[in-house]
Each structure stands twice: as structure tokens, then as C-alpha cells.
Amino acid sequence: MTRRGFVMPVVVLLALVGGLVVGVVLTRASQRAVITQAQLDAYRDAHREFGMKSIITSWINYSQSTSVEELTGGGGEGGKAFRTELPSGDLVEASFFPAQAAVLIEPAAQDGQGARIVRAMRDLDLPDTRPVGPLSVDAARASQQTIASLLAAALQDDELAADLASDIVRTRRDGEIARSELDAVMNELGLEPDARRMAERVLTAEPSLWRVRTVYTPRRLGRAQQEPVVYEGYVDLPDGRVESSTAISSNEVFLSWYRVDERRNTAPGARGAPG
């Protein structure tokens, strides 16, 4: 083999090896860029999620003297609470909806008796459910099916549960029922003390649970418009308002807070939520 014939394969081999090395370096650089971007996105999302929660907390704190129902227009169905533009130009819109008409299906925070009732509700696959909050449902807004099913699990008497649910639905007016009216219904049916205690445990005329839905819309950059990001959570507001600054500062009103997957458009462990 001549010297020229020997050099040519070596040149080709070196070019091939050099190309492979460059390819590996570029691939690793690209992978590092992807990993770095993912870390930056996670960091940004975490801070944005905390920021949305802080905005809601501040709004509740500012509105302590007024009930959420009044601030969302009254009528008992909830709705838009506020819309604000941040210094960055991003928009935040928050809405509150009554949430205690849905039945609890996560038993973690319940005692033995409560956990038994919650597990029974989960097995029924009811249309309106929630993952957090009190065991009781709103007697004024819960469906007759929900009330009857919950009472049947609590009282372990299907006929009595159906009668009580029917009387409650017949008594309430325009989505409202007073505590005295709820007591009167139980008195008319002559509930035994133990049955009455259980009924009072799973029904309330004074709901405190609200579902918060926050839509974050980044400002438009040129022609590009980023998709809105939606966050939801449950807050516990006795009497529809917060009186304790300690509860506010420690975020104790929040029972959950999460980013919503718009493809499912529902909360983890929840079905039938409005909005």
C-alpha cells in the first residue's frame, strides 16, 4: 500500500471519530439544557403556585369583615371574587364556589365511625365528591341522592334515611334551610338520640367549605400568548369569613392547593365540581 493510500483511511477514520465526538458533546449539551430548563420551569411553577395562594390569602385577610358570599355577588352560588393585574402585566382572576354540597371520599382525617361512612360514600361512586373538608354536607345545597346516601351510611337505616332526605328537600327553599328548620324535620320524624347525633354529624345548615379557582394569564409577549394556568384549592371559612389573623398568616384556611390539569379539568379526588 502506498503512503497516500494509507493516509486516506486514517483521515476518514479520524473524521468519523471527530464527528462522533462532536455529536456526543452536542447531545450531552442539549440534554443538560433540557434538564436545566425543566428545573427552571419547576422553580418558576412552584413560586407561581405559592404566589397565587398568597394572593388569595391576602384577599381573604383584607375582606375579613365581609362574607365570601357577599363578595361574590350573593345568591349562594358563588362566582368571581376579584380580578387584578400584577406589576408584571400578568392577570389573576379568582372565583369562589360553595363546596360542601359534595360528599367527602377521603377518610384520612376521620375517626373510626367517620372513616366507615366516608368509605361507604367512596364505594357508591356518587357524582359530587371532594377530597377534603368536613364529613358533613350542606343540607341546603346537597342533592337528595347525596343526603339520602350519607344518612343511610350514618344511620344504617335506608328507609329512615330516605324519609329524612325527602323531608329536608321539601323544607328547604331557594337553596336555603335554617338550623331551626333542620331540627324541626328531625323532631317530626322522632329520631332517637343516637340517630339524631349521627344525622347532625353528617348534615349542616352552616357550611364553611369553599372551592377556590384561580386563573393566571401571563401577559402577551409580542404576538405570542401563553396559555392560562389554573389553580384550585379548598378553604375552610366558618361563617363565610375569617376572623383570625393567626389562621390567615399561617395559611390554615387552605385544606388543599394544586395546579389543575385542564385536560381533566377537575380536582384530584373530586367530581362534579362547578366552574
Provide a concise account of the structure shown.
This protein is an alpha/beta fold and 275 residues long. Helices cover 47% and strands 17% of the residues.
Provide a descriptive summary of the structure in words.
By secondary structure, the protein is an alpha/beta fold. The chain is built from 8 helices and 9 strands. It has helices spanning 3-62, 68-71, 112-124, 144-155, 158-171, 179-188, 193-202, 245-249; strands at 79-85, 91-98, 103-104, 129-130, 137-138, 203-204, 209-217, 229-236, 254-259. A 5-stranded antiparallel beta sheet has the order 1-2-7-8-9. Strands 3-4 form a two-stranded parallel ribbon. A two-stranded parallel ribbon has the order 5-6. A hairpin with a 5-residue loop joins β1 and β2. The chain is elongated and about 105 Å long.
Name a few traits of the molecule:
5-stranded antiparallel sheet; 8 helices; 47% helix; two-stranded parallel sheet; 275 residues; alpha/beta
Strand order of the largest sheet: 1-2-7-8-9
Mean pLDDT reading: 78
Instruction: Kindly name the structural category.
Output: alpha/beta
Q: Say how many strands there are.
A: 9
**What's the tally of helices?**
8
Percent range of helical residues? 40-55%
Q: What is the CA-based Rg, rounded?
A: 28 Å
Fraction in beta strands: 15-25%
Largest sheet: 5 strands, antiparallel
**Distance between the terminal alpha carbons, to the nearest Å?**
81 Å
CA-based shape: elongated
Low-confidence stretches: 244-250
- What are the secondary-structure elements, in order, as H or E? HHEEEHEEHHHHEEEHE
